[in-house]
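Researcher: Quick one. four chains, 1608 residues in total.
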Amino acid sequence: MSRPRIGLWLIGTRGGVASTALVGLAALKQQRMPPVGLVTELPLFAELDLPDWSDFVVGGHEIRDVSIFDEAMCLATQSRAIEPELVLRARSELDAIDRRVCWGTLHGVGSTITQLADNEVPRQENPREAVERIQQDLQAFAAAEDLEHVIVVNVASTEPAIDSSRLPAEWDKFEKLLDAEECPLPASSLYAIAVLELGCSYINFTPALGSTPAAFDQLVRRRATRHMGCDGKTGETLMKSVLGPMFAHRHLDVMSWVGHNIFGNLDGRVLDDPANKQAKVASKDHLLREILGYAPQTHVSIEHIASLGDWKTAWDHIHFRGFLGTPMTLQFIWQGCDSLLAAPLVLDMARLADAARRRGEIGTLTFLASFFKSPRGVDEQGFIRQFHLLESWVQRASAGPK
Amino acid sequence: MSRPRIGLWLIGTRGGVASTALVGLAALKQQRMPPVGLVTELPLFAELDLPDWSDFVVGGHEIRDVSIFDEAMCLATQSRAIEPELVLRARSELDAIDRRVCWGTLHGVGSTITQLADNEVPRQENPREAVERIQQDLQAFAAAEDLEHVIVVNVASTEPAIDSSRLPAEWDKFEKLLDAEECPLPASSLYAIAVLELGCSYINFTPALGSTPAAFDQLVRRRATRHMGCDGKTGETLMKSVLGPMFAHRHLDVMSWVGHNIFGNLDGRVLDDPANKQAKVASKDHLLREILGYAPQTHVSIEHIASLGDWKTAWDHIHFRGFLGTPMTLQFIWQGCDSLLAAPLVLDMARLADAARRRGEIGTLTFLASFFKSPRGVDEQGFIRQFHLLESWVQRASAGPK
Amino acid sequence: MSRPRIGLWLIGTRGGVASTALVGLAALKQQRMPPVGLVTELPLFAELDLPDWSDFVVGGHEIRDVSIFDEAMCLATQSRAIEPELVLRARSELDAIDRRVCWGTLHGVGSTITQLADNEVPRQENPREAVERIQQDLQAFAAAEDLEHVIVVNVASTEPAIDSSRLPAEWDKFEKLLDAEECPLPASSLYAIAVLELGCSYINFTPALGSTPAAFDQLVRRRATRHMGCDGKTGETLMKSVLGPMFAHRHLDVMSWVGHNIFGNLDGRVLDDPANKQAKVASKDHLLREILGYAPQTHVSIEHIASLGDWKTAWDHIHFRGFLGTPMTLQFIWQGCDSLLAAPLVLDMARLADAARRRGEIGTLTFLASFFKSPRGVDEQGFIRQFHLLESWVQRASAGPK
Amino acid sequence: MSRPRIGLWLIGTRGGVASTALVGLAALKQQRMPPVGLVTELPLFAELDLPDWSDFVVGGHEIRDVSIFDEAMCLATQSRAIEPELVLRARSELDAIDRRVCWGTLHGVGSTITQLADNEVPRQENPREAVERIQQDLQAFAAAEDLEHVIVVNVASTEPAIDSSRLPAEWDKFEKLLDAEECPLPASSLYAIAVLELGCSYINFTPALGSTPAAFDQLVRRRATRHMGCDGKTGETLMKSVLGPMFAHRHLDVMSWVGHNIFGNLDGRVLDDPANKQAKVASKDHLLREILGYAPQTHVSIEHIASLGDWKTAWDHIHFRGFLGTPMTLQFIWQGCDSLLAAPLVLDMARLADAARRRGEIGTLTFLASFFKSPRGVDEQGFIRQFHLLESWVQRASAGPK
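Model:
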């Protein structure tokens, strides 16, 4: 019996996270690399029937006219983030994916992202037309590659935040926004609509709106599909969700928590636009007060420092009071490659979303909470407790179908 | 109905941890301080019938001829660790405790600690005589103060490590070591024997041997009492037990973990003796490989830097590989007051051990694992999972007697 | 022969820097403190005929209705920056100074500072009236205290920056701005005019305009007096002026230099106003490119984090390339008390300005360059080379009168 | 007129520093690299008649049977310290140098270094025979390559320290140690004798004894040659010599200075031997008290952490008191490639030593003080003041011959 073919469709196929994931996927297929950094390669998952790395066929939407190979080489030579050898040996695989990439949409992505877009990216279509075009791309991909299922992961740059509090909670009303004179929905939500209406799985790895609004629950159930988001948790915020519970459980009073992030990749350039930055900062900042049960003074800054390339450096200064009220300090300095930390989680979630599909799971994949800064449908923000959700799911899933 | 009177007997009554705990206890009794830093003051414990702070009567063993008040003032003025006002207002309470302090024993504490001891500390008695004298002190304390129960916490300086692998596992053989020509047992174990034989509770807050040997299980059961240890987890090692699981769960490969600790209090002076330091370093070092499942290169150093006083500063450098094998770095700098971080845990555990007694619990109090670097009877070294043990116990205990 | 009496007039008498300086001056007069932190107490100055600490009589201008004692106690108890004992023993001295304080002026200080001002601070007077009132205050002070000379040091909060490029370079035209319908001059310059016209010495310890404009050279010479500024160099920028030359001399290519400053005192609160912050950031940022000879990407942020009080913490991340182009990193974390680092320099410069006066020096006191972020009349920004200017002056001054 | 040919003879030709220097020299000759990191490429030296990079012919002594190319590739791929491309393009140049390498001597290098040595390295010759063999190698090199002069730089691993206080101060007595039954002189001094007796220039870039003893002054003058040392100043100690004067000039009282160094290259492995480490620690530690004029508590540790490769990471914690006695803290973290920081200084000093020779300079080259942790013949330990010595020399040298 031949293996099923699974589609992995990346929105932002030629960005840093996608390029890194695809270099890694090629190396995994060729078994040229130990599976370090991949959660689903932990012994915990040994009994689970997950897709093989070779089951995946990759395509995607993108707005820039570059090549995945060049982007990956840039991470290798300019950022010194990847061994050049790994990129060179993935070249034919990357080039094949490049040929499957279609133009994305620029609705609501803001002027900074629009300036990066190629001239050929459609600018005249209305939101509904964009959704339909996206669906045609996905259907063509699935047909051409004979795919059993397609999982779409949004790894595009951060869009400007919108006020989502007034969006309708019912799908039938929400869906009409596509025809509104001033449609408030950003690209990420157009993708989400297109993807979920087709019954594909949708994972929002960015702080963009995507399928966050409540109305999507109805759509997801109607189409018997699944989704999760948002904003992958990979560095400074991962640390917050790990350290926050320590302070809470020891009854140490966090007075202030300052986080200063510097990095120099394209994502950083987009975040230099205050409109785009606002969404990111909000996503990095909310979880502390949820973990602690009170609101310490917080400050999150993100600055684009070109020389750092993909090396995200975060300095966090945590000022807390202990017994007898004495102030003390914890500082940490995180020096990680942004794309390298994010990329494996994209691959992990593609595997896990497909496993959930095979088990017949429908709705929000809350067991993926530990991967996200703002996990949809989950109040728990502590990392270890979020990981328990994953462990429990593995236990259930290892026991057999739902 | 009058409240029960509970004895809290501190071995090392005039050291930094004890002095700080006692300043705090005085402030808590007088309700002059918010209960920050105390785990048992978290909402989690609200339904539990814990002793009041005013239920506690304090005494202890000590080998130095100083006063608790002077030691606490030194923490206030030299280390700037405590507000002087808090110490001044605790003075009469501290002086009363000083009057209940008895001379401790110097068996096996090593030359560095012995040099700190007052001339009047008994040096001629043999181990069995020491045990008997300790028991007389405890009995006199209980009688004089009309105590329902006495909880003994060892907060003395770190003793030199001994090879405990050849100690007999059966109590009847173990107990005979007291009469051996060269009794290998250090002071902490003599105290543990004395305390547990009387049916008191014993908590070992130091890396010393204490009641760690397996044979103590039999003694504890025979006397229907309880114990726990060892080595309170308050700073750098707490961080290890919080961060270690993050690396494990994200499948990040820790290549090396270097921890450099500097501080200037008396504990630091004792640890400058290599014999004493060895026990501490071992206690700080083992848990990483247990959490990670493999052994990264580790290095733990502890240096006595006089100017720092009680301010323990730890720099940890964690070198790890992620996806595609790229090395990354996390560094943290912990600037905490050693005594202030340890002291509330001593008070917490006195309360919890008494609550366990009232529920009829006998044996090793494994639910206290999150307080220790080397929790007796518990393999789990991750802090959050250890804290679950405490949460589960609170749930059971809140539901009623055992 | 009795000692001369020297006036020290502080603009911002009740702020953190002034309060700290005055606690220290009291302790120095009473010889209750080693002279640590005072440059003029180095052996280098041993042969120089400097004023005694007891020669100084202090007064000043201020806009807030608080007491110096309360401000100093706040530094002691809230910020834990000063030993309370030192403040308590200075009380009568501080109270006497408080009685000599006059209301300052609010011209051009911006809304954030104005909101801090007492209701009684004059708000109706025009700039010329303000100057005249300031002069009356100074003259009354000198007369009442029988002073040989008055040195005025501006230690008030940072004013909003103004565009000074169009200010006239000739004094006669400049002086007419006082009568202009929309006088562009901020308070610091009104003080400078008032002070220098009277022949007093003027030191600008803040990044405010003060006597920076070129036209002041004419005024200073006409009145045969002296001045210097601006912006005391005490922490992060001191480090820049020390480390910058190392990178330059080793031909290490600084690609980016990020400095993130957090602190919680009143100065920090004022700097939270972007108008005021701009002046400070410019003053902290310019010197790197002057030292290096090229402009690396720089970022300076200053955030008000209330819990830190007077403890200014700066994290600087310096990304540089060495031989073969390999990027490397130097990071530093500075944890200093802002007021404690600035205060002694105020006292030092009062002494040195008076010594310069006695030697008959007129004009810009360039030998004080090492004390300033933006030293007037000096291009050299490297700290050690600036210190040579001071050493050479001491050598000349020790040899006798000019 | 053809250019003069200058010999550069490296003791430890295949170590990290030498390999890096030689990759760089090849790139400089081919003009494939900007001269970042090279002091002699600063504008300061523009007028000086320095040797061209292409004037240098390289050979050396070595005890390991590896190739320079492999060592350099290891720095590229394992340590990610050098771009692989640079090494690949230097290959033929490196291989040519390899062919000129001769076996070194193992006298007094200690067991750790001896274990690294190839079996063919002579072990039977006595010290005088070793000196003679070294001289034959140098003479053969000079003859074969038609060299005008040879400069020898010692970049071998750190030898164990010896007690040099009893060595004779007169050359005629000193020289007789070569025939002593138990000659106390380590390899570095045998090389120094051999080199200087031939009239070559000798630079000791390591903390080894080399030509440090006073008696060498006589030898150097007799042979009309020149020398300098010892121990290149490249990272943590460079920082000490830069920051120390800041504390001194601001009268800030350094109470303690802790430096913790971790790295994983071969040098680090040798320094794991306490005998070898002692020499290094002493060299890193002495200068603070010379700069400050008093002795703060200091601690220097050096640990071999394999995963770091050539990336030397130093954490320094400086605890100081300022005005009013308040303790404050400066910490820095230095993340540099050890070999990359040292290598250009080797090339710089080869050029400068040759320029000094052409000017007829004889004796200790004190103007090179800024390059060394323990500069021979110079008391000044502050980096900037040491650099003035270099600047003054350049000024003199640019003006014409001595």
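The domain at 236-337 of chain A is CATH 3.30.360.10 (Dihydrodipicolinate Reductase; domain 2).
Researcher: Thanks, that's what I needed.
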